[in-house]
Amino acid sequence: MKFSVIYRLLGLLAGFVLLLSSARADDVLFEVHKKNSDVVFQVTRSVADKMTAHEFKAYLPGGEGKVQVAKGPLVRDILAAAGITAGERIWVKALDGYELDLPFSDAQNFDMIAATSVDGKVLSVRDRGPAWIVYPNIDKPELNDALYEARSVWQLKELTIECRGRGSTGGTCRCCAFR
Predict the structure, then answer these.
(1) 162-173 residue pLDDT tens
(2) Spatial separation of the C-alpha atoms in residues 102 and 122, rounded to whole Å
(3) pLDDT tier for residue 21 given thresholds of 50, 70 and 90
(4) 109, part of any domain
(5) Beta partners for 94?
């Protein structure tokens, strides 16, 4: 009798663990929006994991000059998956309310990533996750300055893309597939 209760509890516990692990794959890390559009692209852990991960060494804000290894998909690949291949600005918002805008060209010209792990550890909100914009500031020393440090936003919540405007048809934007 005691063993059957224990086995049932173990079965329930195993099911609960599976439920939690599958829910984590679909947790939204951050969202990509088009300014003045209702269309939203949700970047979940499973979406990020399906994209090609890029890994490089970088100096991260708050890292006290320590070289760290950041890993995640390229921001330009995330934007492309959302149907965005061009734009003017990327408005970045963090979970703590920090906001700034980046030139869209940063995503095209630099291999900046939305890091989902640092030094082999998956990022959580506690350690500046779930995603962190990281520039390759060791491979490109010109990116190792206060400007790009300020652009390295942690606890990423959303990216809002601002484009040049609508095409002459009034439907699809001239620089991306969003309506």
Answers:
(1) 986 654 445 555
(2) 25
(3) very low
(4) yes
(5) 156
